[in-house]
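Quick one: sequence plus zinc ion SMILES, need structure tokens.
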Amino acid sequence: MTTATPAHRAHMLKSHVYAGFEPGPRVIILGAVHGNEICGTLAIERLMAELDAGELTILRGRLTLIPVTNPLAHAKVQRNGDRNLNRNLAPTNIPQDFEDHIANVLCPILADQDVLLDLHSTTNPPGQPFIMLGPQNNTGELLPFARAAEEEALALRLGPTRIVEGWLDTYAEGVKYRLAHASASLRAQMLSTDPSYGVGTTEYTRKHGGYALTLECGQHNDPEAPEVAYRAIRNTLAHLGLIDAPAPTVQAEFELLKLSQVIDRMDEGDRFVREWASFDHFKAGDVIGHRANGTALTAPSDGYIVFPSPIAVPGNEWFYFAQASERLVDGRAARIMG
Ligand SMILES: [Zn+2]
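Reply:
Sure thing.
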């Protein structure tokens, strides 16, 4: 058996469109934006089988399904093809790498949507699914937004009950810090010093008039993850009226964390004091890790660690701090995380 992938698979983007006869929202579901995160791919394929068999009908609006959004990364069974498709996402006149080519065909599709649901899975434990929520309504420069109420309403109806917010502004602050503090040699290794580098599928969709959620469905190989993804798709279609189905349950008991700071790994010698998992809790002053020169990195306040990456390339994100957020979501207050 050959492991080679047919060349054509890595040179085009395949999407499927189901249009209802009645008016309604334009909804897109993405799988495998990161190639080794296949829960969304499996869930989309399951949904397509039902649509194609006539067991389910899109009655209103338009549903676009992209089971494999990064076909090169998917063929390689890894996160990225040439680079991370979910950063610095924008069309470009002179494509340099595979993801630039995908961006040129994907971005116009995203710009033509009301709603995006982007399905991912995580490397790190724990496997509990969580939702990445966008900003509150604002007229700022980084990401002006006016559809927070609709986005929040969908977030509480996907199924999972843990929500994380504050991605893009924390990322932009991290870029500023990086620019101010990095040595020249480290700068060369940095992914980017452009604040818009934090723009992925959801940010791009919001920039172009839609609203969007990323759902982390669990760990990559968790057999539950495709089920979480599938339920989220069905709940989205029911909530937005594309299919006739009972209104999904509102998750009134939810946890909400706000990312507050990103800490870069600066040196191969930077080490965590233990193996951290996302959402591990710590108290102000707890030692998280040590810099190569022995300096202790301590928690600035009570909070949680998110996306720890023990082997991050120096100059790139090592981990994020997060705190409980008091933001109301769909008019409801979160409960404090245990
Ligand atoms: Zn991902």
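The chain has a mean pLDDT of 91. The first strand starts at residue 16 and ends at 19.
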